Amino acid sequence: MTCIDLLLARRSVAPKDLCEPGPSAEQLEQILRCAHRVPDHGKLGPWRFVVFEGEARADFGNRLGEIYQGDFPELGVDLSSVQQQLLLRAPLVIAVISTAGPHVKIPEWEQVLSAGAACQNILVAASSLGFGACWLTEWYSYHPKVKALLGLEEHHAIAGFIYIGTAKQKPDDRVRPPLAERLVYWSGT
Ligand SMILES: Cc1cc2nc3c(=O)[nH]c(=O)nc-3n(C[C@H](O)[C@H](O)[C@H](O)COP(=O)(O)O)c2cc1C
What we know:
Elements: H1 3-9, E1 18-19, H2 25-35, E2 47-53, H3 55-71, H4 80-84, E3 92-98, H5 108-128, E4 132-136, H6 144-149, E5 157-167
Antiparallel strand pairs: 1-5, 2-3, 3-5, 4-5
Helix pairs in contact: 2-5
This protein binds flavin mononucleotide.
Flavin mononucleotide is lined by residues 11-12, 134-138, 160, 174.
């Protein structure tokens, strides 16, 4: 498949539709190198990657379970089990962190966009290697205790968790807003 065909057909694969195998160590490195090669105004490298594979997924999930349970103690029921399983939905998960912050020359917004581009490069790289992938934020990307768990600074943000694995089935196409409704050709004032 050519790059243009891949981009025109790309679809996310929901974590429930992902299974083993995930990328090999060599493929993971390729994916990360693609993520690391995004447009980056000022060469700031305003992103970080956290890789979860194997037992690390369960370990992080256990911590998510504790955090989630801690938020709803009054309910008196065990809410943690679903959260513990979250990262186990795919063989590989990569968290992308935006380290964007104030800078004398480079607007913070542009740094955030660069982290978003890193997420998209991960999706496209995984796809081109034949894997399914999905970019999720869910609740834990925004929880201050999860940010602390990952050692993030106050101004850092989690751009998302990218779940990667083998697609159990090819996803159906998805209705897209018509391009023509979002496009104009500038023709002067
Ligand atoms: C920053 C960001 C966060 C997202 N978070 C979620 C999420 O938490 N849950 C979800 O169902 N989809 C989420 N999505 C949407 C999916 O990644 C995906 O784009 C959507 O399911 C549509 O599939 P498609 O990529 O094939 O169009 C998010 C997308 C972006 C860009």
